[in-house]
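Subject: sequence -> C-alpha cells, single chain

Hey, anyone have a minute? Need the predicted structure for the following. Not urgent.
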Amino acid sequence: MANALGMHVIAFDPLVPPQEAESAGAIWADLEFLVESADFVSLHAPARADSPPMFDERMIKKMKATSVLINTASAELIDHVALGVALSEKRIGGAALDILPTHPVEPNFPLLGLENVIITPHIGGATVETIRRHSQMITEDLLRFTRGEMPVNFVNPEVWSMRRGTT
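Reply:
Had a minute. Here:
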C-alpha cells in the first residue's frame, strides 16, 4: 500500500526471505539500516516474553529526528520510558500507538499528553468493513450454535463434545 502512495518501502523480517520482500516492491535491509533511514517505522512483529524490547533506548536513538514510530503489534516491542524521553526531547518526530502496556491506559503512562503522540485503544484496524465482517462472523456462529452446530470460529473446539445435554 505504501508503494502505491509513492513511498519507498524498506523491510526487515528475519523470517521472510529478502526475495519475497523485494518481489512486493520493498528494499530489503537489516533492522539498523531501516531504523536509521526510515521516515516511518511501522512495527508488525509479535513480542517474545523472554526478550527485551526491540525498540529500546539504543534503537530509538538511531532514528532520525523527523521519524515517526508506529506500533500496531505488541506493546512489549517498545521501551515506553525511553520512547517518552526521546519524544519529549524531540529526538524523534512522533509516535502512533494502537497497543499499550495496560488496558485501560494508566494515568501516569509516560506518553499521555505529549503533542507528538497519537494513541488509539487498539482499534486502529476497526474500519467499517472490519466491523461488518466481524459482526457477520459472530452472527453466523451464534446461529450455528442455536441450531446445535459447532461454531466455525470456536477458540477451544475440544470442549464442544462436553457441553450439557449432548451425551
